[in-house]
Amino acid sequence: MTAMADSPPLSSPDATTDAHRSIGWRFASAGSAGLLVSAAAAATAVLAGMGTAGAATIDVTNCDDTGAGSLRDAIATADASAGADTIVISATCTLANPVTLSSEMVVAAAGDDLSIVGPGSATFVLDGADSTRIMRFENVGDVSLSGITMRGGNGTGGTPDADGGALLINGAGDVRLADVVFDANNSLSAGGGLYTDNANSVTITGCTFSNNSAVDGGGAFYSLSNGDIVISNSTFVGNNSDSNGGAISVYENPGSFTMTNSTLTGNSSGLAGSAVFLRDLYGDATLLFNTITDNAAGYGVGVYIASTQDSLTVTMTGNVVSENSGTVVDYEVFIGGGWTVVTGSNDFHGTVVGLTPDASDVNVDPMLEVLADNGGPTWTRALAANSPLIDLGPATIPVFSGNGFDQRGTPFIREYNGRSDIGAFEWTPAPAPTTTQAVSPATDPDGPVVPTFTG
Q1: What is the pLDDT of residues 187-238, one digit of tens each?
Q2: Angstrom distance (rounded) from CA 449 to CA 455
Q3: Which contacts of 92-97 are long-range, i.e. CB under 8 A and separated by 24 or more positions?
């Protein structure tokens, strides 16, 4: 693997915080000025158009926690009125001037749809100040959130329980998140950044989950009893769970799980599934063109998939699953139960259990660069110019939304030089354009690059 670039080390955990809180990756400086964020204007525009025809529109015009023109006031107005509502945020509330919350914001309008359209995750920041959850939805209709950052949320300060350090959704229609950054949130239960339960579906596009932590599973995202889950073009980095699923935990889902064009690196768990933990799904699991590397689990296994259900299919195509470590076992992938497993054009750089690799699968050092801004809305790990994974992707690209481009989206085509590469990143010789991201990387002495705040 390509050596990590020199950069400032992460600071040590704050000894004054809860013991569980101190486990995760920490900020380099308390005076924050940069964060792994994105403009993702296209994704935000898509969500902006999702409001129901005739829905009321409510404007947010300032960075106050309460009062006229605040997001809290807009949510209260939407919650008190019947029917669908769209909240449009025009205020500029950056890391230097965030909306600092005194308590969580609650939406509990039974069955009503709500869209919150922010100006971009680099531009509108909600800060829980490590004392309160950011937002909670209870038994609502469709939920759409875009163009915001949720940081410093604390599940211990919210009700009814500690699930979802930043965002808790208990009962909803279709949940859609685009260009949402979850950073440095904490839960003493499950879902350090996001917890969803009993939603019709959950779609996560162009989002970043960094430095979140949870005790009971899903350092970044925990899903229980939801419908179909689709994750695309997203980055999970530096998240931690004391239990299973350093980044993602999905339990007892009636629907399917699909993850495409995403990067999971530097995550950790106390038990299994340092990156992905899927248990007792009632639908198929599909992983296409993901980069899952350098995650660490106390027990082991980077990607853990198990179910008691028969007649289900796991499909893995075009993924890099490499350098995921454990203290008991060092399995890159473990698949247990009655699954039918279909693989092709993956790099399983290590031991896999419960599947027979296809002839097109390889076991080689992927030769990845450090996590960096390589263009596009989220950070990625580029292939080195001499990576053996270049032009080793599937001859026919699987059908999924966005399959013509790599994780970075337009204009980064998925198939350069007549054949795709393996992983979330497609190598090209031309330099990548810069983006509007405002980030500064740091390296842990024993792990990959992790974006942090800088002073």
Answers
A1: 999 999 999 999 999 999 999 999 999 999 999 999 999 999 999 999 999 9
A2: 18
A3: 92/63, 92/119, 92/123, 92/124, 93/63, 93/123, 93/124, 93/125, 93/126, 94/122, 94/123, 94/125, 95/32, 95/33, 95/34, 95/35, 95/125, 95/149, 95/438, 95/453, 96/33, 97/63
Q: CB–CB of 122/438 below 8 Å?
A: yes
In sequence order, the 6+-apart residues with CB closer than 8 A to the CB of 324 are 274, 275, 292, 293, 294, 295, 296, 297, 301, 302, 303, 330, 331, 332, 350
Q: Dihedrals φ, ψ of 132, to 5°?
A: -150, 150
Distances from the Cα of 447 to the Cα of 30, 198, 293, 443, angstroms: 22, 35, 10, 7
User: What are the two backbone dihedrals, phi and then psi, of residue 71, each rounded to the nearest 5 degrees?
Assistant: -65, -40
Cα 270 to Cα 260: distance, rounded to the nearest angstrom: 25
- Rg of the chain on CA atoms, in Å: 20
Mean pLDDT value across residues 165-179: 98
Which residues does 57 contact at the CB level (< 8 Å), separation at least 6?
Answer: 51, 85, 86, 87, 88
pLDDT at res. 103: 96
Mean pLDDT for all residues in the chain: 85
Interacting residues of 114 by C-beta distance below 8 A, sequence separation 6+: 75, 78, 84, 85, 86, 87, 107, 137, 140, 141, 142, 143, 144
- Domain ranges in the chain are 56-383
231 - beta bridge partners? Answer: 204, 259
pLDDT band at 73 (very low <50, low <70, confident <90, very high): very high
Give dist(CA 153, CA 146) in Å, integer.
17
Place of tokens 């296409």: 288
Residue in the structure block whose two tokens are 């299994």: 272
Digit-coded pLDDT (tens) for 291-311: 999 999 998 899 999 988 888
Question: 56-383 in CATH: which number?
Answer: 2.160.20
Q: Find the mean pLDDT for residues 128-141.
A: 96
